[in-house]
Amino acid sequence: FCGPQQPLLPDPQKIVATWEAISLGRQPVPEYFNFAHDVLDMWSQLEKAGHRPQIPAFWWVNGKGTEVKWNFEELGEQSRKAANVLQGMCGLQPGDRMMLVLPRLPEWWLVSVACIRTGAVMIPGVSQLTEKDLKYRLQASRAKSIITTDSLAPRVDAINADCPFLQSKLLVSDSSRPGWMNFRKLLREASTEHNCVRTKSQDPLAIYFTSGTTGAPKMVEHSQASYGLGFVASGRRWVDLTKSDIFWNTSDTGWVKAAWTLFSAWPNGSCIFVHELPRVDAKIILNTLSRYPITTLCCVPTIFRLLVQEDLTRYQFQSLRHCLTGGEALNPDVREKWKSHVGLELHEGYGQSETVLICANPKGMKIKSGSMGKASPPYDVQIVDDEGNILPPGQEGNLAVRVRPTRPFCFFSCYLNNPEKTEASERGDFYITGDRAHKDKDGYFWFSGRNDDVINSSSYRIGPVEVENALAEHPAVLEAAVVSSPDPIRGEVVKAFIVLSPSYSSQDPEKLTQELQEHVKRVTAPYKYPRKVAFVSELPKTVSGKIQRNKLRIQEWGEMRGNPRKAP
Ligand SMILES: Nc1ncnc2c1ncn2[C@@H]1O[C@H](COP(=O)(O)OP(=O)(O)OP(=O)(O)O)[C@@H](O)[C@H]1O
Which atom of ligand 1 is nearest to the CA of 434? Predict the structure, then answer.
């Protein structure tokens, strides 16, 4: 007697095995790959068969009592409806581009998946984009469609006439607006039947605009495989995700880290947790962390700097077991405070919009405080000179990723419409990240700063990060940014902009300056000490929370001479 035949279930390990086989050169990248079909629909099947714990795949809270929870089946259904809206109402065909400018609303994740289902290319952006930013992005990308909220819609309307390629506009709102289709209404009415487009691995999946610190923003294009498959291993090794985990990354949806989270968590069957978080508030973050069964947390160092200022003994994080950071350098002092109060390590990672994870401190590897960790497979990461020659351990140079003879599959395809820039980003066999660092004899990488942020004083090259870390060790310093400043004798000198801890804000600035200068001389090489110090109430930051040293540099040198080494 044979019972009813069990349907053959997909093997969730297959995607990991595929990643490994490609990385080891044992298998080419599959000709066809689609994240929605090959990953999400697989988890739907496994979930239905009871092969996944009873946790959502997506869990959104707004802090005011409203929650959205979808398991993989519901995510599949909702995203198929959304795909029908994109295809049917917006007329999007595979390869067409859609700008996706939404705050942390569930629709951001839905539309991202819907784009993948329809083969449309998503172009995420931050909600702070101005009319000028929007016009530039819509014109350069020739996006056919945009989805956004009430707050950005008027800015889109103001420049609409200058964007002839823009054919449809979707509004995520409970009200209506002339010229816009209401996404929520269309979603409610859409069919759940949708055939996922069969995308090729090399087809484009996403375009990210760089922040444009050194010229007009460039378009970084990623393929279905580079993002869809590229984060499988780092999701497992660095983020340490399993199908029982609930992963909260506080990143803005316009920043690449939101996509990093999506493509790391879901292949591993984990839940993505999102708090709407209209503004960064340490207490809200800590309360959420203690209230929900979040197992894995990722924030930029800026946020951890805020969190460790709070009285952490008042909170209990019962489920939390793994913490990550990246996007800018983590001050060792912050890592130590977090570890001593929360009892968990902060595992730092390093990467760019152009790449997946380049360096990391995965679980189980010894952490050297202040280092970004070791090269993350499959990348061969080296420090090279300006011609692309590998430099020995200990020598500072360009942080670079090998792209020849084999370009890693988890790598951007190109700077769109900019072959000169794509070519200029390579030297010899390497892609040059634009960051300066050194590697020690154990293979750990130590970040000095972005190429343009490195200070050249009396022919010493000084990385801002080391000076900032030294300052951060002093209890008076809440945050510091170190940049180059003009000096009649030395050409350039080190200047520190410092936000003081509240208990030091009324101290005599002159005495404090001297004390901080002496402190830096004691904890790092004395020539690096800041000859100029300014106390400020806040530092300029990107929406993703990164310190904008370039803005401070421009303040010091003027617009034209913002980068002294590039000055005429
Ligand atoms: N762990 C880290 N330590 C130090 N810096 C980091 C770390 N992680 C990321 N970064 C910095 O962030 C950069 C990558 O950021 P991303 O690609 O998001 O855009 P951006 O560099 O901020 O914008 P743009 O390239 O347009 O100026 C890296 O090149 C590096 O300078």
Answer: 29
Q: Which residue carries 């370039």 as its tokens?
A: 550
Residue with tokens 């370009």: 407
Residue whose CA is closest, atom 15 of ligand 1? 352
What is the residue with the minimal CA distance to atom 6 of ligand 1?
Answer: 328
Three-state secondary-structure class, residue 212: coil
E-assigned strand segments in 21-71: 58-61, 67-70
Is the distance from CB of 495 to CB of 533 less than 8 angstroms? yes
Spatial neighbors of 525 by CB under 8 A, at least 6 apart, are none
Return the SS3 of 87. helix
Q: Which of 39, 48, 33 is nearest to 11 (CA)?
A: 39
Strands (E), 355-476: 357-360, 374-375, 381-384, 397-402, 414-415, 426-427, 430-439, 445-450, 455-457, 460-462
Which residue's CA lies nearest to atom 12 of ligand 1? 327
Which two three-digit tokens encode residue 165? Answer: 């390629």
The phi-psi region of residue 329 (left if phi > 0; otherwise alpha if psi is between -120 and 50; otherwise beta) is beta
**pLDDT digit string, tens, across residues 447-479:** 999 888 889 887 788 989 999 999 999 999 999
- Given the cut 0.90, state whether the ipTM is greater than it: yes
Q: Is the CB of 326 under 6 A from ligand 1?
A: yes
CA of 260 to the centre of ligand 1 (A): 14
**450 SS3 class:** strand
Q: Are strands 430-439 and 445-450 parallel, antiparallel or unpaired?
A: antiparallel
Mapped onto helix, strand or coil, the DSSP state of residue 172 is coil
Q: How many CB atoms lie within 10 A of CB 564?
A: 17
pTM for the predicted model, two decimal places? 0.91
